[in-house]
Amino acid sequence: MKIFIDTANLDQIKKIDSWGILDGVTTNPSLVAKEGTDTPTRVAEIAKILGDRPVSAEVMALDAEGMIAEGRELAKIAPNVNVKLPMCEATLKATKVLSSEGIDVNVTLIFSPLQALLAAKAGARYVSPFIGRLEDIGDRGNDMLAETVNIMNTYGFGTEIIAASIRNPMHVLDAAQMGCDIATIPANVLELMLKHPKTDEGIAKFVADYEKVNGKH
Ligand code: G3P
Q1: 4, 28, 161, best to mutate for ligand 1 pocket (most atoms within 8 Å of CB)
Q2: CA–CA separation, 217 and 207 (whole Å)
Q3: Does the Cβ of 132 fall within 6 Å of ligand 1?
Q4: CB atoms within 10 A of CB 168
Q5: Partners of 129 in the beta sheet?
């Protein structure tokens, strides 16, 4: 499974990149606004850090012509930039046009397998089902993701599924177990994935036992 980080914060991206496990970055307008900058500026900075790994840049237009024009501009930032479009009727047309021009599209704000099916049929390179936000309204995020993975695997659309709106390590574990292609994970959840109290306890014991015989390391 590929691991993306879901952030527009450069320090977080550099830190996780230093672990050697980072396959890409996703941003959205809220994440970019949190950094006090704009999408083209921040995405250019992120794209440079990532080299040839993908970074998603979201359009603000909600009509097809606007999405296409904005998407073309965002794609010019760097070859590794893909265009994120929020799921709606206009998105299908815009996805078809942009993908036929060789621009990768990530259709976001996916909350049902059928939305993902339509986006894939329109030529999306990625679809982003939102797990946490579905659970926020008492629905089953994991079931929605599993159904989406099943449909994509059945038909081989060539569309990769990005498990998004991930709020805790269990969301990542579930996505990995169901064979989801990618998880885009916030920095705090990536940090939690690294940790286990028994690992910390084990390290402390090894150090203590070593130092009993050899003195301080
Ligand atoms: O980038 C889209 C998605 O991952 C947002 O997550 O936590 O704001 O629902 P969240």
Answers
A1: 28
A2: 8
A3: yes
A4: 15
A5: 110
> Hey, whose CA ends up nearest to atom 10 of ligand 1?
165
- Residue 112, class by beta-carbon neighbours within 10 Å (0-12 exposed, 13-18 middle, 19+ buried)? middle
Mind listing the pLDDT tens digit for each residue in 8-51? 999 999 999 999 999 999 999 999 999 999 999 999 999 999 99
Q: Which element (helix H / strand E) includes 127? A: strand 126-129
Query: How far is 150 from 174, CA to CA, in rounded Å?
Result: 14
Ligand 1 centre to CA of 66 (Å) is 23
Structure tokens at 71: 């998407």
- Least Cα distance to 93 among 74, 54, 66 occurs for 66
Q: Are 111 and 83 in contact (CB under 8 A)?
A: no
Give the predicted TM-score (pTM) of the model.
0.96
Region at 166 (left for phi over 0; alpha for psi -120 to 50; beta for the rest)? beta
Catalytic positions are 84
